[in-house]
Specification:
- The protein has about 110 residues and is α+β, with helices and mostly antiparallel strands.
- It has one domain: Aminopeptidase, CATH 3.40.630.
- A 4-stranded mixed β-sheet has the order 1-2-3-4, with helices on one face.
Amino acid sequence: VADAERIADMLQHANLIVTARMDGRLIGVSRALTDFAFCTYLSDLAVDEAYQHQGIGARLIYETKKHSPQAKLILLAAPKATGYYPKVGMSLFEHCFILDDAEKMILKQV
């Protein structure tokens, strides 16, 4: 949040952003990358703490999925949020991998 330039890049390059507003004030956001056919990666889901536990996060997920109905919606949960997603109907998928540093890759010739 403190890196405004990085936040600007994140918003500029996302191709599906859904927001929740109360009296014009931003209270929730879903930021996703999608091809609208095969997969939608829900990269960020955030709801202002004062408005949590009111179904806003679930509605943001629903609206995100609604905009790419053919695509599977995929997300990586923050550790503190892992208990939330099953409550809104999402299934745990255990076959996920993360690469933080390309220098750690083992490159092999085929």
